[in-house]
């Protein structure tokens, strides 16, 4: 491999309107594994991640949390950065779109496009999806966004436009000449079909909100968030900087070899970004790789669906290698894949604790016991076809692993490596070194040495290959093998027969203690504890979770029960799905107990509109609702089925308590409560509403 070879890889920059979850971790870990392996191959690697912090969505989320956009973005961006540090992600830089270096660079990009005649002033009238930050061809106020189905907003604005229509042919030409530009093939075909169907000019500035980068010379406008965000890939390595020190980095690393993204942002990366770059006369990235989604409870893991799992829960129980291995082995890259705690523990126990863990501990402890902890000499006269078969398989494994990994077939590459682990474990069982050790003759001693040498060589090879994916465990096995720091290893020369006879093993310790069933419950419990509501500005200042009092046994917030339907505040109610009681009823705080205004203000009530309503199977009192509260669509499970037909609820405005901890009801996560009066002994719910028309998202005070 050429020493001068370089490799620049990026993750999307993550929105800071939601805290990190394992969906984000998935992309980051994939990139981290690729970057680590490239470095082990001697390639000069640059790995970038960061956070996307501008736009109306963020502005609104900050307002909903009652803090300034700056406070809001600082805190959530900090959470992303802290998580990657905790996971020892090897990113070389972390870009924030609110940093001066980025803002300057985006303005430089805007000016460059303007100077080349690709930006003009015009006006836009039409629908906009705030959630996707996308202008859409939907008709009429509230029409659903074709991308995400959320209601769109009507905007009339004077805007700057980018001449996207002029890029139609240049883009198609570029795709045709660079067949590997968009991968996998299915995404490439979708993009080509989309561009062929015609491109309209793109509005690239907004005047309706302020939280963004001002258009140079016209600060009433802020630059469209996607033009802002996409440019991060270049601003992070010095684009737009006047400092001559930044120039070599930009020249060295741009264009990027890989932009890794989730499939929902293909259009922005494969149409808009190359169009901007072609127009700006800048080199295009070499490839854009789109992976599938991580699903949890059968839908895309996302904050708005309330079905997220946090990485910390897994890191604090099974450790980072368990999570990394699962994500790369279990999910077939490019396709959607499901996450479950059961599957995670099963993979951990089967592949890591049993297969690799056993191979490592039995091989190393036998060398310790029979050869005083020194790698023995393999006697050629004692080699059998079984040893030769393992050697052959190991060599083939190295070749196949590299090919499969390079093609982003991570799961297959790991499967290949683990076939070798399985074969060596079988070889050990069949060759019974413990029985050979019982025999006290020279040939037996030489045979024993050969068996253990074969086993330890295979273990070394698997450990080296797996290092980019499970860096912690493999580092420990490497030290136990007596080989020092695995970081020093050059993967290019990896081959059979390289461990030196006489190598002194390190201290032998188990690498993967088996996980028992209780760990699943523990993780589920931790998830519930962790899903706390959005922080208020005071809490944001503290940088911590809200100091909400909790009932010791359920972890439920001690919010007085004021006749709210949807998330019963008592465990008995959550199991029956019965609607909670009305104000001052027996279930809640007694009417004489006064709360302070400050306590009341902690309850964030908002106007929402029911978008979806349906019965919950097997629960005659529960409805599953999807409620648009302006900043997002929430799933709420409400005990109102006896009083309301689901069909009649769609389109109705309701009041929802938006900052409650999510709870699970009948396996469904409920993210908020609907406010209702509770009538009679049965507690028949009657939804609160307004006589006047009230916009979605309005706060009740
Ligand atoms: N800010 C934009 C990206 C701008 S890049 C110039 C954005 N941010 S995001 O926070 O919504 O993150 C999107 C990325 O996070 C996805 O493209 C994907 O890489 C990752 N994922 C978030 N949820 C995911 C899953 N449930 N499954 C897999 N990946 C997920 O879009």
What does this structure look like?
With 701 residues, the chain is α/β, with parallel strands linked by helices. The strands form six sheets. Strands 18, 19, 20, 21, 22, 25, 26 and 27 form an eight-stranded antiparallel sheet that branches. Strands 1, 2, 3, 4, 8, 13 and 14 form a seven-stranded parallel sheet that branches. Strands 6-5-7-9 form a four-stranded antiparallel sheet, with helices on one face. Strand 11 and strand 12 (218-223) form a beta hairpin. Helix 2 (56-65) crosses helix 3 (69-86) and helix 12 crosses helix 13 (341-371). The protein is globular. 48% of the residues are buried.
Put the structure in a nutshell.
The protein is an alpha/beta fold and 701 residues long. The chain has 23 helices and 27 strands. The structure holds 5'-O-[(L-methionyl)-sulphamoyl]adenosine (MSP).
Core attributes:
701 residues; 27 strands; 18% strand; globular; binds 5'-O-[(L-methionyl)-sulphamoyl]adenosine
Q: How is the secondary structure organized here?
A:
Elements (H helix, E strand, L loop, with lengths): L5 E5 L3 E2 L6 H19 L3 E9 L3 H10 L3 H18 L6 E4 L3 H16 L3 E11 L4 E3 L16 E10 L5 H10 L4 E2 L1 H12 L5 E2 L1 E2 L7 E2 L2 E6 L1 H6 L1 H4 L11 H7 L4 E5 L3 H15 L7 E4 L2 E3 L2 E2 L10 H5 L4 H11 L6 E2 L2 H31 L13 H22 L3 H22 L1 H6 L3 H25 L4 H10 L37 H13 L6 H6 L21 E2 L5 H6 L20 H6 L2 E12 L2 E10 L4 E6 L7 H4 L3 E5 L5 E3 L2 E3 L2 E7 L4 E4 L11 E2 L1
Parallel strand pairs: 1-3, 1-13, 2-3, 3-4, 8-14, 13-14, 15-17
Antiparallel strand pairs: 5-6, 5-7, 7-9, 10-12, 11-12, 15-16, 18-25, 19-20, 19-22, 19-27, 20-21, 22-25, 23-24, 25-26
Helix pairs in contact: 2-3, 5-6, 12-13, 13-15, 13-17, 14-15, 14-17, 15-17, 17-18
The structure holds 5'-O-[(L-methionyl)-sulphamoyl]adenosine.
